Recover the amino acids of this structure.
């Protein structure tokens, strides 16, 4: 620690803490990252993987805003897969297995080299507040550190307790102490502290696994990077398979016979568990008709024999865990290198937060990650990035940064938490997102890179790359919408070969591409323009003058005799990167649905822009029920749109508020024109 005063101080160095600290320091703020151990910065506490359904979108958005998670995943990934690849682009999500050790070493190196960022090995015991505003923190050793803002990212450490059978140990992770004093400090500051439960499975010695009985799951042939700043995953980067096995009826009987020893079912744990990533005990209890559950064996890294058995998270006693593992095909003789455990940890209700992730009670205090009731690295990293950005902006006296639900999965995540709250660990899914046709994984850079550049988190060169990419896509979409193919042409004949309807009149390439059986690569070789050099120049960012679309002489349309520019030009579009081809095809095929969704966004945007004053007195608003007044007072929405999403606030109440806010705005404007004191009259 070089200074005694900082613009921003971050407590905790997990996925949320790292993103928060990097964001604030990259904004030019003097930043201090406080952690118990340097060696655990960026540690993957649970499974060694990044991304997944709904989560891959978050990682891409973190990257587009200038965060680090995507780059770390690309550099240390040992398997890459796109989930839901056979479905529409709107629900496709990227996922990679990461080398656990190399992932954290990468982040530790980034943190170590980051300008404006200091690291303190220690424990924060108290957040110091004066006049409702952050002034500093006190460490467990009694030192006072002054700071303008604090970001708390305690993960599972806030009064964490680990359970293995009847054995209970205080801590946030095996071998690491819990933040007990800080949890008590939150209570002293007037916050309610709830408890959620999560867990992890045992780790297995891969040398004792019989892989001959298992189904291998390999990486995609064309690995897709998470970061738009990663040109491609290098061919020499080692990739490993995962393996699939399953529980058996014998497994289930072992668990059923020992429910009384499970902390979740013995009454030992009262906290709420994860609905969408349940322990194996939960699965057996809830899905009584299922005779087996999948178990995915995930390699921990290139330099270890350990495997992570995804799907059998448990808090049962060690000897029961061993019996359970040995009942699974391929694992009959497997040695457990360490047991699984359940963990309950402190959570501050996220309804205590503004959309900036600053607490409503204390100015300058921001919360991010599992302390807000979420589960998962990606949800934590996204919150950490936004909290770090806003802590840095506040320290610099600048306006806050908030993403809407129509702009990003991150916007949905934070809006869900701060508007609705959560009574169980929150996990992101594509199904939570209303506008997923327009906020897809593949266009995260288009949506958010401008913000990252304006904030100062993305370089001019990186932003320029995004601009050139989408200029190329726009040009190609425009070309397809203005180029016609004629009956009798070579493409017409190819269409008939795949049982697609023959052309009866000159038809736009875009209309041909909209046919379900046609894809971009089918029409690409029949382009009107010879674009080998043009596409290469476009990707380099150089100007291209397009040749006018070919039109046959009058009276010759459809004869097929004038195709000098329509001849098959094999491979002329191979210079387009696959990511460009994918987006061109999506923009054309789903254009109608996309336009409809944009109209929906516009229809609701006006109420999102109607701000509710922080000092709003809901008792002065006639026509509201007592219940709705209490809810509005409790949640203190910042806009009419946010008020509209509070459970129980009716459409009629929104209409009443809209009228009241309009009149309030007019009265205040009139008061400003009349001069000081007029409004009080």
């Amino acid at each position: 620690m070089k200074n005694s005063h900082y613009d921003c101080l971050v407590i905790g160095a997990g996925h949320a803490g790292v993103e928060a600290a990097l964001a604030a320091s990259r904004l030019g703020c003097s930043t201090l990252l406080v952690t118990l151990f340097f060696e655990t910065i960026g540690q993957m506490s649970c499974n060694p993987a990044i991304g997944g359904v709904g989560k891959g979108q978050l990682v891409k958005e973190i990257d587009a805003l200038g965060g680090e998670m995507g780059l770390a995943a690309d550099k240390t990934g040992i398997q890459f897969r796109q989930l839901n690849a056979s479905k529409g682009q709107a629900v496709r999500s990227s996922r990679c297995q990461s080398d656990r050790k190399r992932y954290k070493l990468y982040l530790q190196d980034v943190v170590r080299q980051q300008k404006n960022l200091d690291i303190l090995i220690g424990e924060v015991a108290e957040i110091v507040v004066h006049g409702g505003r952050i002034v500093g923190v006190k460490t467990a050793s009694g030192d006072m550190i002054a700071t303008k803002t604090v970001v708390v990212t305690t993960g599972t450490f806030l009064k964490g307790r680990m359970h293995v059978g009847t054995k209970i140990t205080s801590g946030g992770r095996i071998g690491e102490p819990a933040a007990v004093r800080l949890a008590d400090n939150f209570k002293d500051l007037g916050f309610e502290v709830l408890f959620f439960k999560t867990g992890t499975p045992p780790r297995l010695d891969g040398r004792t696994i019989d892989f001959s009985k298992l189904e291998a799951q390999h990486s995609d042939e064309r690995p897709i990077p998470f970061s738009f700043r990663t040109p491609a995953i290098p061919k020499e980067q080692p990739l490993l398979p995962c393996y699939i096995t399953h529980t058996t009826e014998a497994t289930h009987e072992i668990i059923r016979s020992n429910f009384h020893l499970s902390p979740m079912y013995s009454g030992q744990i009262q906290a709420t568990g994860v609905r969408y990533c349940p322990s194996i005990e939960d699965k057996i209890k809830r899905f009584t008709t299922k005779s087996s559950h999948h178990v995915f064996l995930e390699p921990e890294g290139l330099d270890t024999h350990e495997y992570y058995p995804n799907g059998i998270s448990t808090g049962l006693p060690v000897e029961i865990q061993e019996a359970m593992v040995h009942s699974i095909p391929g694992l009959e003789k497997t040695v457990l290198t360490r047991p699984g455990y359940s963990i309950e940890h402190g959570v501050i209700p996220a309804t205590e937060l503004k959309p900036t992730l600053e607490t409503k009670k204390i100015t300058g205090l921001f919360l991010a990650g599992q302390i807000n009731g979420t589960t998962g690295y990606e949800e934590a990293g996204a919150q950490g990035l936004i909290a770090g950005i806003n802590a840095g902006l506040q320290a610099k006296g600048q306006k806050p940064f908030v993403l809407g639900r129509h702009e990003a999965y991150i916007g949905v995540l934070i809006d869900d938490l701060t508007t609705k709250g959560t009574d169980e660990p929150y996990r992101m899914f594509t199904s939570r997102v209303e506008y997923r046709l327009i906020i897809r994984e593949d266009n995260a850079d288009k949506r958010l890179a401008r913000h990252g550049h304006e904030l100062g988190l993305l370089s001019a060169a990186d932003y320029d790359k995004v601009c050139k990419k989408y200029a190329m896509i726009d040009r190609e979409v425009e070309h397809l919408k203005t180029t016609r193919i004629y009956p009798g042409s070579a493409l017409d004949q190819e269409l008939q070969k795949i049982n697609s309807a023959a052309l009866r009149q000159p038809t736009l390439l875009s209309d041909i591409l909209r046919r379900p059986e046609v894809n971009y690569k089918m029409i690409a070789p029949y382009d009107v323009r010879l674009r080998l050099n043009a596409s290469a120049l476009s990707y380099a960012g150089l100007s291209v003058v397009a040749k006018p679309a070919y039109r046959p002489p009058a009276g010759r349309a459809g004869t097929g005799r004038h195709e000098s520019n329509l001849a098959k030009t094999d491979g002329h579009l191979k210079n387009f990167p696959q990511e460009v081809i994918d987006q061109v095809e999506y923009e054309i095929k789903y254009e109608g649905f996309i336009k409809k969704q944009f109209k929906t966004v516009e229809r609701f945007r006006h109420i999102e822009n109607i701000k509710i004053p922080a000092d709003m007195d809901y008792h002065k608003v006639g026509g509201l029920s007592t219940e709705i007044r209490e809810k509005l007072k409790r949640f203190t929405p910042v806009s009419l749109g946010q008020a509209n999403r509070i459970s129980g606030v009716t459409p009629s109440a929104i209409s009443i508020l809209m009228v009241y806010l309009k009149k309030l705005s007019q009265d205040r404007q009139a008061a400003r024109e009349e001069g000081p004191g007029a409004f009080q009259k």
